[in-house]
Amino acid sequence: MDVGIVGSTGYGGVELYRLLSNHPNVDGCILYSSSLEGSSYAEQYPHLSGLSHESVKPIMIEEMQQLDFVFLAVPSGVSKELAQKLMGKKAKVIDLSGDLRLKVPGEYEEWYKGESAPQDVLGKAVYGLTEINRHAIREAELIANPGCFPTATLLGLAPLYQQDLIDPHSLIIDAKTGLSGAGRKASQSSHFAETQENLRIYKVHQHQHTPEIEQQLKEWSSEAGPITFTTHLIPMTRGIMVTMYADLKDSCTTEQLHTRYQSFYEKHPFVRIRPVGQFPGTKEVFGTNFCDLSIKADPRTNRVTIVSVIDNLVKGAAGQAVQNMNVMLGLDETTGLHHYPIYP
Amino acid sequence: MDVGIVGSTGYGGVELYRLLSNHPNVDGCILYSSSLEGSSYAEQYPHLSGLSHESVKPIMIEEMQQLDFVFLAVPSGVSKELAQKLMGKKAKVIDLSGDLRLKVPGEYEEWYKGESAPQDVLGKAVYGLTEINRHAIREAELIANPGCFPTATLLGLAPLYQQDLIDPHSLIIDAKTGLSGAGRKASQSSHFAETQENLRIYKVHQHQHTPEIEQQLKEWSSEAGPITFTTHLIPMTRGIMVTMYADLKDSCTTEQLHTRYQSFYEKHPFVRIRPVGQFPGTKEVFGTNFCDLSIKADPRTNRVTIVSVIDNLVKGAAGQAVQNMNVMLGLDETTGLHHYPIYP
Amino acid sequence: MDVGIVGSTGYGGVELYRLLSNHPNVDGCILYSSSLEGSSYAEQYPHLSGLSHESVKPIMIEEMQQLDFVFLAVPSGVSKELAQKLMGKKAKVIDLSGDLRLKVPGEYEEWYKGESAPQDVLGKAVYGLTEINRHAIREAELIANPGCFPTATLLGLAPLYQQDLIDPHSLIIDAKTGLSGAGRKASQSSHFAETQENLRIYKVHQHQHTPEIEQQLKEWSSEAGPITFTTHLIPMTRGIMVTMYADLKDSCTTEQLHTRYQSFYEKHPFVRIRPVGQFPGTKEVFGTNFCDLSIKADPRTNRVTIVSVIDNLVKGAAGQAVQNMNVMLGLDETTGLHHYPIYP
Amino acid sequence: MDVGIVGSTGYGGVELYRLLSNHPNVDGCILYSSSLEGSSYAEQYPHLSGLSHESVKPIMIEEMQQLDFVFLAVPSGVSKELAQKLMGKKAKVIDLSGDLRLKVPGEYEEWYKGESAPQDVLGKAVYGLTEINRHAIREAELIANPGCFPTATLLGLAPLYQQDLIDPHSLIIDAKTGLSGAGRKASQSSHFAETQENLRIYKVHQHQHTPEIEQQLKEWSSEAGPITFTTHLIPMTRGIMVTMYADLKDSCTTEQLHTRYQSFYEKHPFVRIRPVGQFPGTKEVFGTNFCDLSIKADPRTNRVTIVSVIDNLVKGAAGQAVQNMNVMLGLDETTGLHHYPIYP
């Protein structure tokens, strides 16, 4: 099976390359990029010396259409055009950008400040939060792979929303991410001397992942409304932690909630519910497709705190994309994703 | 004027030494420690080679009583004993531990798991949040210097609570700190290989600064009840950011709130209100006594997000202690604290 | 095949666990530790939640003797006792400590400040620098796995010494390492706040890896004498870079040297010679068993600079140990070691 | 006294601003920049909120000529033009670029790949290594402020060269620097995700500071020839460590060398010779103008290892520039530079 990686020179692209090159059902990766075409991939990424012998190709729509799978790891705004051209051809498409995730007319325009993909493309795109949408993903030809923050957030909230345990109006989401989330392009906000030994908040009330989270929450609960979602930049490369707070509808102990989470995620190999009293650190999922969750009730406030961690480039991007490919192929979901976290 | 630093070999102690050695009204620092007595201070802290010629003395109560000021930078539990012995003598005492902050019987026992200081000591101890308690501090002989998280949090919330702008029940406080807050003693949780490229949450619903924050909020508002307060460890050495969320009682724009904050802190040299739309990073107060604040209303949710940053070892500990000393001496509050942040 | 990991709770041990758990010829890992016996491994290392179900056993010599392979990842001083008790039994032993490396009487005593292993044990122990000693390793029952610095250094120098290209008296070795090399035990020298944003030199002229390097160099060249070898602590977790300098015997271009290196390491899958003009960063081998090398001649000085990088926990410890196990088993040397570096 | 900072928006410029704003003899800083003219300085550098009220001006030669001091903190290549235009006017000029340091015709062209400043400008420019050239600096009107690496290196070598203790042909200089040395301009080589948890070597045998070091060494010793000098990027913001190695001409103990260093630098307030057996870390000079030195002889090899650390932005740039200004003004050399290192 031959797969294409479009936007191969970005961090999402190179992580797809790491995972797909070691995937037993993938014979070869074909690398595309609109900016570095013609260059040797191992020169772009010297850690691949001796491992990659590919050159980066320009965008070649017709060739891509004939592949088995095409992963779009290009910026939002670019992706929708490619997705449209690839639709209805041989290649199944997994889009890692934000272009195909928002279904409500006007939302993309509001949050992404650009024109939305056409409704027929949006209509075909299945939201690829694997643990939640596995059945639809299996039949899909086009996947809107979730954003990194929505993945960690929604997996943390699913049991509470589906079982109607919290008051949706009370939800607060405080997210923290490492700097690889900003991509490979150099900028002052990701310059080492400005970010090391620094902690910043950004896009306050304006992060484009806000409507993506809201859209899913509304599917789960008719009470769900606008949420408070903020994001912080942590001086580390990989990893997301989302800390969530909500009022419990009824009184509930940590142990009861823990049991619900365990049973909710029992058959989901990539979600690990931590023992009562233990909370995950981001490094404990480093390099893997795991999402680790903890939950704790506070009887003083009748509120619950949920902690969710992922590796933003794996479960938050490339890993979940491969997990979706596995589902679409009818493979065991963990195929090619059996990594142990690198620790320390 | 001679001042004593007890617990001089910890990070709070050495930061006091940096500030007091360059304070125009301080002639000399006398250094005490129960663990490293007799050692040369510059050997303990080689960055002071050629700057410090002091040896560290053992705890000597009688000598301390005759000093002008004594700073207690020892762990909670130890401090209350020393404070008691120093009371009513010549030396004014500034206690940086948590021992003298909680006034409500039973709270210290619950959160610090030890026996509280006697009520007469507690009764004399003025809570040293300078911007709020300046008048009482001026007359005090014993100061309970605030905790690092309460300092950043309470300065961020004061205008909202004093002007009754938010619903106290809705308050969520998500705090993040660098690792120097854990002190100088080596432990696995502050071991480099376990903390670098890692982000962790700790003491969920159990941090001992919780009742300290609640106590002050209750003074400001009869509606204030138990709060949700969580703390995260950031892979950096210095700096605290506290992100706070609350429901607005009435609709209010960011500009209106900004104006209120500016006028509330107009005469407070160490609180900097950032322009609308700009949020502070922790590095922007590095090494200084500043507390930088931003506030933003979200019309979608009718909620407000407040961001507060400090250097945990300066405004969160040693700097505020010196600021309090200045107030007690009738000096300009900024004496000896005119540092510019080190950037980058 | 069942393998034992002694000292399983240290960083070397847990890296062995990562590699061996995913090794196709290994059925199970049995974990031993003298300090944390009885505890659940996943509690010691929460990143292994759901992956490890082992408990840590106490040291059990008789059980160990019956295993197929035993890896000793215990401190120098402890290892020699265990190695002695395991000798001549079923289990083949790979010792990751420094106990069995130095063959010259008196050297261990001088550099390790303890009593050497008995000569009969030393005599059986084959120095496990795989690329150099592959034939002897194949027949060995006891391996002295090389130190992290000697591995990077000796692979960098082998072509120059074996082909008599440099003046051994001129050799200078400036080594830099991340902090995981110091192990998991907390200490002030690996405390986050003391090491982050800091760069230190340590054990100047006294590092115990010095005689290990000298011993091998003397095997290669009768002219080799005492070397200058210094080590620096870099604020990062993993990775070693060794920068080496030596006078060329005859004038030689970078291209000529490059060709020699390429041909020297042609059949060695874990040594990557970088293209002329490109130098490796430590992150480019992160998590893998690669040793990446570059060499450059300086016509101005007629000197050569050699740069060698490894992941100290993989090629510098656990990875090379597994590579040696593969050789001893007659397997392809790369079995279970096909990792791509995690980047970024 | 009014001083101008040209290139004020770079890291050298903002560090000059920090030092000069707190200098007792400086009334005001006038800020110039060719790229960000018209902008508010506090917007460029939000850590200066409330501290700086200046706007950044465009380059205005005539105005600059009338100032008391002008600091040129602009890139090499730009500086020489400005220096030329300012020569012979009221303003004394301190140039922090590499443009005026190399006196031998052809060297600038070779190492900086551009046209050298005219000989009359070069002839007037005094090399501002304060500890070495104090007398000439006192009379100078134009200073070529030394590079960061040459400062640390030359202060480390001066006693050995001036007292003819080592063989110049044997000298090896292995330098390590934090990333602020690369300036504020974003680039991939200073992108957080590419540099954190990474260690790289760069400009091997090609660093433009090589001839600057050689030029001074040749002044000290007729035997001095081309040197081996390499530079490494450390994942930290500030700090340089230079490790130097050389053969001793005669046998010499560490204690003897230590005594020579102590007496050589006895009257130099910014050079701190560490006690025998103690080596400085970069963090121990953080934010200050200190250069800390250690030296150790190795009787096994009859070689000496010298370690020198500075803060690259202070003693390696802005701090030494202010020190030179103090000398030129006949002030105490430490005026405005009495900082204690920020630690931890």
Which key phrases capture this entry?
homotetramer, 344 residues, alpha/beta, Rossmann fold, Dihydrodipicolinate Reductase, domain 2, 2 domains, six-stranded parallel β-sheet, 13 strands, 19% strand, globular, N-acetyl-gamma-glutamyl-phosphate reductase (chains A, B, C, D)
N/C terminus separation of chain A:
35 Å
Order of strands across the widest beta sheet of chain A? 8-9-7-10-13-12-11
Largest sheet geometry of chain A: 7 strands, mixed
Radius of gyration of chain A, rounded? 20 Å
Our count of domains of chain A comes out at 2
Structural class of chain A: alpha/beta
Helix percent band of chain A: 25-40%
Oligomer state of the chains in this structure? homotetramer
How much of the residues of chain A is beta strand, in percent? 15-25%
CATH class term of the largest domain in chain A: Alpha Beta
The overall pLDDT average of chain A reads 97
Q: By CATH's scheme, which homologous superfamily of the largest domain in chain A applies? A: Dihydrodipicolinate Reductase, domain 2
Considering residues with a beta carbon less than 8 A from a beta carbon on another chain, report the largest interface and each chain's count: A-B, 45 and 45 residues
Order of helices and strands of chain A: EHEHHEHEHHEHEHEHEHEEHEEEH
**Secondary structure tally, helices of chain A:** 12
CATH topology of the largest domain in chain A: Dihydrodipicolinate Reductase, domain 2
